[in-house]
User: What shape does this take?
Amino acid sequence: MAMTFSVTILGCGSATPSLKHFTSAQIVNVRDKLFLVDCGDGTQIQLRGCRLPFGGINNIFISHLHGDHCFGLMGVISSFGLLGRTAPLFVYAPKEFEHIFKEMLDFFCTDFPFEVVFKGFDSKKQEVIYDDRSVSVTTVPLKHRVPCAGFLFKEKPVEDHIDRAACDYYKVPQWDFARIKQGGDFTLDDGTVIPHERLTKPAEKPRSYAYCCDTAYNPAMIEQISGVDAVYHDCTYSSADELKANQYYHSTTVQAATIAGKANAGKLILGHFSAKYQDENQLLDEALKVFPNTVLAKEKNTIDL
Assistant: This one.
């Protein structure tokens, strides 16, 4: 059974307030580690509504410093304090945010029993900003009006699985299983070598996910996100509003679908919808003509990779 790798949409609207959508935020769950990506207004309300544990979030990634992506951050941090958090919280954001962020912490979040650690990054560079035994997170330089980066989540490979029936047949001692899972062979008493492949079953292929919001059409990122299982892409406008998309450094449906196709992505998730569209199925229909495996983001929906 594959380990968890999923994306839960908390908000997929754009900057203009809407009764239909919350602003940008989502939870990426990799093997039961929860990563909060962007933190627009209402994020903590959505966390409650999705029954996601506040205490399970240790890392927050902010793509850029527009309010619809970060105005909920201080509220989330404040609630962590009120709930008695003691574990450190790590906030990753463009380095330009550090000064004002620390001022807000000093003003609003004094005497909290946990440390907030700011990790600034250069949004113009591809940089590994988080790495553990399960997953790495790398910044994806985007094309927006302010310094902005996406995030590429890449699952780490796991060891092959022991084929217990095969191991029992060849009388492999259990204490040797760990070595065999890591690629070792087994030698019988008569010198016959039983190859690793005959004693194991292949592990699941590592999965990957790219969050790319907000951005104008940006072919420069295609190579970096090539082959991802899913990409969440800015889809603020329909193709009829391409001039407006260019003006505000956002993307259209067709542009998002083109990126997904050229990157050979497994799935395209459209998000960051302008409030001007009452029926977003028109956006979906446009993208489907270019990239068939496209879905609309929707609040409280969880997408398994």
About this structure: The longest strand covers residues 5-11.
